[in-house]
Design a protein that fits this description.
The protein has 407 residues and is mainly α. The protein has helices spanning 2-39, 43-46, 85-94, 109-112, 117-127, 151-159, 173-183, 189-192, 233-242, 252-260, 267-278, 296-308, 310-313, 331-334, 339-347, 372-382, 395-405; strands at 59-62, 65-68, 140-141, 210-212, 215-217, 349-350, 362-363. A hairpin with a 2-residue loop joins strand 4 and strand 5. It is found in: Cell membrane.
């Protein structure tokens, strides 16, 4: 009898230990999935301001019309509560949702296809633990004919290559981790790679800059003039982790990326991404010659700069480290496209807040007291002074963006 009791207790003890081990494994998987959701900045498109986490409703403006981030909580009626892991894997790797309909490229499955099945399983396990939120979201708000999903068959033929990331055996583990994140879950190319006329990536110009919703997502290759060629690995890490380095302070959509995503990455992943980006060759194109200081636009722009800008950015564009960005030799200033600069001058900007920099510095708006020609001359001066060289800004470019910013 005593032996039977001891045997039963031993079996129960073994089952309990196995159950605890299973719970621990589940916890590790879910926590890994939570971190993967941060890496992918899933909240940016799936959590509306003031809304429930991942319940959708974030408008995404595209050149073809508006899409809205879907509800990806485990609600069975309006979310992904009735999805299987296979359904989720197909959405991530093929861009095909449960029910067989194709997703639009605003859901960056062209990058997510590189994510491993194991990472997708962990991410799905995390999403299944979220609070189910009943939130009906009409994701497709595109006008005809773009709202017809059948067109996506042709779009995919031209713009989509399915397949997980394949490590480069000639590179070390750190480089491959960085490449896996940049090309896959972090989907950096979705903003930073130029697009063709139908919204697909120009893969031969990977990460060489693109305008998104009136903001320039700059070149993040080794281009020393317009890209990050002069940045060190540590300066790249500072920018991703803290939102600032000696060259730039994150603003606009990138400030949100830093605040909600990259500031929470592990140091190892930050280093891996920085290492990979620093390995990318930049365009060999020589920078243009700067405008002469005697050019009337330069003379007018200098007067405006000294009156309105030098108090923060300092007389020769040095800025104040960690507070006001450096304008001299800054890649964003030297970029051929002045979209972000025009926008910041007109509408102002506030940098993102991180644990390291909880108070983000702000830039006031000048649309109310600078005319289009004033803004154009000011930026032309900044873009051709202190070692900078970039095409002059036209008043018409300012007027166009000003009209787009009107309520």
């Amino acid at each position: 009898m005593r032996k039977s009791v001891l045997l039963a207790l031993a079996i129960l003890g073994g089952l309990s230990a196995a159950a605890q081990a299973g719970d621990q494994t589940d916890f590790v998987t879910v926590e890994r999935g939570r971190y993967l959701a941060v890496l992918g900045d899933c909240a940016a498109c799936h959590t509306a301001p003031g809304g429930k986490p991942f319940a959708g409703g974030v408008p995404i403006e595209t050149p073809f019309g508006r899409l809205v981030g879907a509800n990806i909580t485990p609600d069975r009626e309006t979310g992904i509560g009735d999805w299987t892991l296979e359904d989720f894997q197909r959405a991530m790797s093929e861009g095909v949702a449960k029910g067989g309909y194709h997703l639009y490229g605003a859901m960056p499955y062209t990058a997510y296809t590189k994510v491993t099945a194991a990472d997708n399983a962990a991410l799905f396990a995390y999403l299944k633990t979220l609070e189910p939120v009943h939130s009906e979201v009409e994701t497709n708000q595109l006008p005809f004919p773009f709202n017809i999903r059948l067109s996506l068959f042709g779009w995919n033929l031209l713009n989509f290559t399915k397949g997980e990331y394949v490590p480069d055996p000639k590179r070390d583990a750190e480089w491959n981790r960085g490449a896996y994140l940049v090309q896959g879950l972090a989907h950096c190319g979705t903003c930073h790679t130029p697009k063709n006329v139908i919204g697909g990536d120009k893969n031969d110009q990977f990460l060489k800059g693109n305008v998104v919703d009136g903001w320039l997502a700059p070149d993040i290759t080794g281009n020393a003039h317009e890209g990050i060629g002069k940045w060190s690995v540590d300066e790249l890490i500072d920018y991703m982790k803290d939102g600032a380095n000696r060259y730039d302070i994150a603003s606009g959509p990138m400030a949100e990326v830093v605040e909600k995503s990259s500031s929470q990455w592990t140091d190892a992943d930050l280093k891996a991404v920085a290492t990979y980006l620093k390995s990318l060759d930049g365009s060999p194109t020589a920078p243009p010659a700067p405008l002469a200081a005697s050019d009337p636009r330069m003379v007018a722009g200098r007067a405006i700069y000294e009156d309105r800008c030098s108090g923060c950015h300092v007389g020769k564009g040095e800025g104040i480290a960690g507070l006001f960005p450096k304008l001299a030799a800054a890649p964003l200033v030297n970029n051929a496209d002045p979209a972000s600069l025009i926008r910041v001058v007109l509408a102002g900007s506030r940098a993102g807040a991180t644990d390291a920099r909880p108070t983000g510095p702000s830039m006031p708006a000048f649309a109310w007291n600078l005319k289009d020609e004033d803004v154009a001359n000011l930026l032309t001066y900044v873009r051709n002074s202190w070692g900078n060289a970039a095409p002059p800004v036209a008043a018409g470019e300012v007027a166009k963006l000003r009209s787009e910013l009107q309520p």
